[in-house]
Write a structure and sequence with these properties.
Elements (H helix, E strand, L loop, with lengths): L1 H21 L2 H26 L2 E9 H11 L3 E3 L10 E9 L1 H8 L5 E6 L2 E6 L8 E9 L9 E4 L5 E3 L5 E7 L4 E5 L6 E4 L5 E5 L3 H4 L2 E4 L2 E4 L7 E5 H4 L7 H4 L7 E4 L11 E4 L12 E4 L2 E2 L10 E7 L2 H4 L10 E6 L5 E14 L10 H12 L6 H9 L11 H6 L3 E13 L3 E13 L6 E14 L4 E17 L9 H11 L23 H4 L5 E17 L5 E20 L14 E24 L2 E16 L1
Parallel strand pairs: 2-5, 6-12, 18-21
Antiparallel strand pairs: 1-3, 4-5, 6-9, 7-8, 7-10, 10-11, 13-14, 15-20, 16-17, 18-19, 20-21, 22-23, 23-24, 24-25, 25-26, 26-27, 27-28, 28-29, 29-30
Helix pairs in contact: 9-10
Length: 632
Amino acid sequence: MQKSFDVQQIWNEKSLRLFINKIPLSMRLSILLLFCFFGIAQASESYAQKTKISIEVTNRTVGDVLNEIESQTDFDFFFNNRHVDLNRVVSVSANEKDIFKVLDQVFAGTDVTYSVLDKKIILSTEAKSSQKGTTVTGKIVSIDGEPIIGATILVKGTTNGTVTDFDGNFTLPNVSKGEVLVVSYIGYESQEIVWDGKPLSIKLKEDAKTLSEVVVVGYGSQKKVNVIGSISAVTSDVLETRATADVSNMLTGQMSGVTIIQNSGNPGADAGTIRVRGVGSFGATPNPLVLVDGLPGSLSDLTPSEIENISVLKDASSAAIYGSRAANGVILVTTKKGKAGKARITYNGSVGMSQATALPELATSAEYAEYFNMAIGKENYTPEMIQKFKDGSDPDNYANEQYLDDLLGGHAFQTKHELSVNGGSEKMQYMVSLGYLRQDGLLEKNYFNKYNARVNLGADLTDKIRFNVHVAGMVSDRHEPSTPGCMDIAGVHGLISNAVRFPGLYPTKMQNGEWGLGPKLMGTPVAWQSCNSEYREDYDKLKTNLELSYKPIDGLTLKLIGGYNYTLSHVRDYRSDMMLTGGKSTGPSQLSDTMYRTVYKTFQAIADYTKTFGKHHVSALVGYTWEDEGQR
């Protein structure tokens, strides 16, 4: 029997080993960890049950009691001070009791719970459910029964809300009976509804005040209720609260279907790229047509203080009157006019600083040398050379420069000031505005100045004849550093792109004060901004607009409009020679000096008839436009 038992035992062990070997390694590790976990849990539970505590305290803080328990046992407490009040006064009486009974006394009447894990006691609070009430369902439609998409439903006084889907339906959880729901949508009157626990059917009324607003359309204006096409508008109140330097960037996020992307922070060249309902043309320019008081213009030439409102014509039906130029949308800018009454003086100014929000973290010279050795598979940089990069003992030959941080790591100053005067009599009104903008860049010799002036006059010559004059001027100068004449890329872009590309192994300035040779024997990007190279751009613009309107009968307006725009641009790009250490020159200087004069003239004759007969509204427009533009 004994022998048989031994043979059977050997067979079982071999079979077990064969069975285990067939089990995948990952499964075997999982089983092992599982048994270890059960062993630890059982040991922790056993220690907690076997450990007895004797403690007798009266009117002591929770913190003192926990310290006493830790001194008597091997337990350690872990908790969040925000969840456990250590200063709460308690009284505990226990004689040879386990840890669970003692903690029951300490935290009686609180929401603190505890768990034991490997001689560690974790204190926490019970999670309170944020769910309350039940779910509200319903549908929101207009007076005509059409579903309203995107209407907002919000529990008053909370952030619990939702929006309607394509069918006007909505579902809002966690609402108690009797709570107030606020229902709103653009162009409709808001409603407050006390929920009675039943599904809701809500009808929103159109906001008469919003629909009666007047918006600027092609060659005229209409009430929003009568506009068929897609039009978005923004007023000066919104623009004047924005601190950006360029008006185009002030429109960001203000109008649906209008996308504005700022591609540069270069002072004077930071205007946003405007796209109306995406890119409408790949061959021709995708930019929308911009008209200021009916004449072609630019948002960058304006200041918020002289703008009354801006309308964007987004679809073909609203922009078709301007022809093929309106293929990518139309932006109509109306400047402020004088108002009868005492003179009103308005000042708007701002002063601020700007800096780079984030710069890429580039490798140090020592890191670059180490990675370079790894990349080529041999020791191009010896350990002694790498050590010199680290300790800076020989900066002329083993520099540790960060060109990009040196160029863009500082702060830039910006200030804007606008002054306007508005007033007049019943017969004649005026608006005069002045503006100044100074914008510095992060690089040396990089700044932008802009001066604006505008005079808008309106006079009633007779009861039926009105004469309007719009005169505006803008003078600007933009400066930026540039690269030496030998480089194949110029301007701010040339400095920054090479600062990112060049490793910082070469000193910008030697110990003797001379400029270093740089990686291409042409200096470094930091040195370039200190040379005599400079890019300068000057603009002088004058815009005049004369308008004579006559109303022979009720509803009919005849207009004659004459416009004259004059633009003088002067661009000077000088890229100088630069002397480096050892008497080396970067090469010959270059100079490009360009001047353009552009004259735009237009004449428009328009007849506009608008009349309401009871419930019927009739509107008709006919006109003639002549334009001429020359450049030399």
